[in-house]
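Researcher: I'm preparing a figure for a lab meeting and need a structural model of a single chain. I don't have an experimental structure, so a prediction will have to do for now. The sequence is pasted below. Please return the structure as tokens so I can convert it later.
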Amino acid sequence: MSDGSVQQQRQSQPAVPSLEEQLAGGEALTAVPDRSQWRYRPRRVGMLWRSRTLRVVAVFTVLALCGLVILALVRDQTGTHGFLVGLGLAVLPVPVLMTAFRWLDRVEPGPWRNMLFAFAWGACAAALVAILANSFATRWIATADPGSADTLGATVIAPVVEESAKAAAVLLLFLFRRRDFGGIVDGVVVAGFTATGFAFTENILYLGNAFGEDQQLGSGFASVTAATFFVRAVMSPFAHPLFTVLTGIGFGIAAGSARHQRVRRLALPPLGLLLAMGMHALWNGSSSFGPYGFYAVYGAFMVPVFGLVTWLAVWARLRELRTLGTELPEYAAAGWLSPAEPFALSSMRARGMARDIARRRAAAAAAEGPYDRPHSHARHPAYAPAHAHGPAHAHPPISAAGRKEVKARGREAARAVAEYESFATSLAFLRRQARRGTAGPDFAERERELLHHLWQRKETARPALTFAAQATGRLRPRSAPAAHRPYPHTAHAQPTHPYAGQPYSAPPYANAPYHPLPGPYANPPYSPSHPPHTNPQGYGQQEG
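Model: Understood. Here is the structure written out token by token.
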């Protein structure tokens, strides 16, 4: 379209009324027609569903109803005694699986509400869909081919139905909790929790039926129940999680892809689901490959795939740590972090050491009480009375209340460091999303909020992280500036505890104009006019 046609089109459009003219006249804004004459009314559709409490209650009510139906169906098939025995045995591998997946998610742990939803969906909703759909499909196949109904149901129908039902939980969290779903590790963990819940319900059914067979044969726990427990809970507790993790990997790669990678974002989740169905079908059909078919599939296929998926998950976790070492140095250069903090935050060992150091130092400072002042005769109420003939600066024995206060101070400091590490991790991942163009329009507000949380906790976390970076060998002591060398070994060089009754002081950027860090996403109106650390008002300055 030529410039002349564009100008002609603009001239044909009515001019937008000026806000200043409307405010000066005052008639157009105040002369609102009567409500009965309104042509455009506020929409009220969906107002009730916008309530977060209502959504949470509705979702968990549906899951609870599914759980009650599952309970009735399983108890009807296994009997009361079989259900109780199956429940007691099926719960044993659940803590092991949940601990393994939660350990994998230590860098940036997802909210527990997402994990509980995934587990409940697998144990209740997915299991109910699987039981009803598998039973209906098997009966429908039996009407046409009774001899192959069980085989087709196990190798064709069950993998498609079960993996689709479990993948629904991953899809829901991918769509509605996208901020908590940022990569491969998140996909693996969500899929693992969902499959763990599904396997838990399925194991109750299988173990309960096995116990019923033992009761009919009069063999107790000696044969069928023990063999079923060994195969499902000892040899292959990761079977269902391994299948669904392939779906989670597809969603995780899609979540971490840039906006322009549409093929990857659209194709990988269905591809992961197809791989999960195929692997599940191979596992269920292994018993039809001969007397040693199960062991052949287990040793030649399941174990190598399990090792490969485990390596991929650990590699993705290490890549998340490398992201911290790549993104956070820019914040250190701007003055928000000390030079040593990116090194410490990119190491799980250093992060744990920082929490431990902060707890012990805060407890030691609290145990000193007012006696760290020379010639102090004051008595802290948490301590027992001093000895009558002791020196004035002697430390009296700590009472029970004093020990409780010391432990509370230590836990408070460790929690502050843990929160600092969590916010710094979220900040690094947010900046990575901004580089890929997936951060969203609220990037500036989210970045500012995270920086505010870091500034609140820096007095406790910064010395501990710097010390941990040096102690773990990730940063040589001589490379750290003198102002950031923590805890020098001198008699009166104890760190100041940030919670010792001091009022909170606002960070220096509280009343300053916002200038985000430069980067590939710094387009107007967010491009800074000068770096944060040169702000004359003190925004983002590093302490001396």
